[in-house]
Amino acid sequence: MSIDDNKFLEGINQKRANAWKELYNSFYGALCNYSRGIIGNEGNEEDLVQECLISIWKSELYFQDIKALSTYLYRSVHNNSLKFLRDRQVIKKRMNDYFQDNITEETDLYSAIEEEMIRKLRNVIAELPEQRRKILLMSLEGNTMQRISEVLNISINTVKTQKKRAYALLKERLKKDLSIILTLYLRKNQNYICSNIL
Amino acid sequence: MLWNDFVTKVNELLNIVIDPTQRKSADKHLNILYESTRQEGYLCKKIHQQESYDHDKAYNKLIAGKHKITWLRIGSVAAGVLLITGIWGILKLSKDYEKLEVPTQITYGIHRAFLRTDDGREILLSQEKNTITDKAGVKVHTDSTGLHYNSEVGTEMIFREHINTLIVPRVSEFMITLSDGTKVWINSESELKYPTTFDDKNRKVEIKGEAYFEVAKCKEGRSFIVQTAYGSITVLGTEFAVRSYEDKNEWITTLVNGEVKCTLNSGEEFLLNPNDQLIVTNDKSPLLREVNPIYWTGWREGVFIFQEERLEDIMEQLSRWYDVYIFYGNDTVKNLHFSGDLSRYESIETFIELFERSKAVKIEKNGNVLVINR
Questions:
Q1: 3-state secondary structure at position A1
Q2: Would strands B250-257 and B239-244 be described as parallel, antiparallel, or unpaired?
């Protein structure tokens, strides 16, 4: 685990505002999208995700590593979303879909895996300039260089070099286990007790 | 357990998506997911979906806790006018900012500021998401994090000397991104004077009160100058905090990162390295010392942190942030020293309780007046 991850995790565990801001920045959209995948377009996903995050914020939970944190986030959003479906008798149809149409917890696990993959991808491509990002995405979607150069109206050579650079960055990040890129700094001194010294 | 391999599988999927040589996984579900990413526009759509959620808004709700930040808190005047204008709350307000709020209970500060443009307009800024164009054609965005100048638009302005002032009243805080990308967090009872675009020679702003600067590096090496009543700070790309309240007669510069040069009005110069702090006062000679910057910058991250600080100094900070006025039973109580670390978004009762727990002081609360005794 990188130093940045450690600082981030420490901040999350100790309920530090800057780490939590980063958590929202990085995970919020992915978790909401995941929840929407389960509950459908009911518009409640933000509340459900917020509920989960607030309960962690208020809890004494301590996460050993980023893996534990990200798994916990998706699992608690998953459970909360199912609870929402159960509580809402009105959405019977979806309930039926959910419990009869072979949608299992395994299906949900894989949609969580997909959202998390997208989130990590987002973190990396956020560093790329716009054109390079477009080229990368088109290329990941399986488009040929010829097609990319036509759609973006740039030369094949540009596509080639830009693609190469984008992939180089991706690979580098992959090596680092695609950890969240953070710029938090560690607090050296931590006195929490309000004591009178005189 | 089903979820045990969650992170491993995520990384495996990412590997397949990114690396064309590892096309197949042993897990058939991952292969199916991979196939779906090969549809045209699929990745973009997913990314866009995730980004469509407003994470800043959600974060602010969390931090605010049960004290929901609403317009009503600003007072019935603002709320009423907001309903009428409907759009992003352009309000003409009396110059008497202090009288804006008539509190019934003690509240803590919120994100708000007044923007005084150089044509004399005064605009109340809140957390509403909006875009305005000022008279020079400069596009300005406001959202839940603050006020942002778009450096891409209108950089070739004729109106270079278009000076705006951002006024952050008591019980408030605000953040601004200047046209060069420099970010400034402004604490309660402070003012920042800045040009909407910077000219070729240098970037210069003026601060009264307390602020935290994250100065953007500039390709052409133009320096960034922060002017205070006591002197100026010259920087090239750095993070530092400055405190220079007029009523305190002192100027405190704390460097977090990079390098800055402080030039006193007398012409005397000081070079600061990270963790250095320069204190300039009227009556004593300037003091350069090493500090832990967190004690001087914690407010930006939403915490009050103090270490062996005088009660009067602590209370002064609190009374800028909470809508509260402090009186002391006698002078000795002012000189008691305390250490602590608390969220700025807690109610003031938590502070009172902690102070009283020390058994050194008794705090009597009467409306929004606190009377402190031994």
A1: coil
A2: antiparallel
Question: Rounded distance, CA B146 to CA B128, Å?
Answer: 9
Q: Do B52 and A24 touch (CB under 8 A)?
A: no
Q: pLDDT of B140-194, one tens digit each? A: 777 767 777 764 444 444 445 578 889 888 888 888 888 888 889 998 889 999 9
Q: Name chain A contacts of B3, Cβ cutoff 8 Å.
A: 71, 74-75, 109
Which secondary-structure segment (H or E) carries B351?
helix B348-357
ipTM (interface pTM): 0.72
Q: Quick check: A32 and B50 CB within 8 A? A: yes
| Binary contact (B33, A113; C-beta < 8 A) | yes
| b/e A48-87 (16+ beta carbons within 10 angstroms → b) | bbbbbbeebbeeeeebeebbebbbbbbbbbbebbeebbee
CA dist list (Å): A124 to A7, A141, A166, B240:
19, 16, 10, 28
Interchain contact B336–A (C-beta under 8 A): yes
| Degrees, nearest 5: CA angle B298-B367-B169 | 45
What's this model's pTM, rounded to 2 decimal places?
A: 0.46
Q: What beta strand segments (E) does chain A contain?
A: 195-196
The SS3 of residue B93 is coil
Q: Are B170 and B320 in contact (CB under 8 A)?
A: yes
φ and ψ of B203, to 5 deg: -110, 120
Q: What is the rounded CA–CA span in Å between residue B152 and residue B320?
A: 36
CA distances B331 to A97, B274, B327, Å, are 72, 36, 10
Q: Which of residues 21-80 of B touch A (CB under 8 A)?
A: 29-30, 32-33, 37-44, 46-47, 49-53, 55-56, 58-59, 61-63
Contact pairs from chain A to chain B, CB under 8 Å: 171
C-alpha B112: how far from its chain's center?
10
Nearest to A120 among B14, B33, B46 (CB): B14
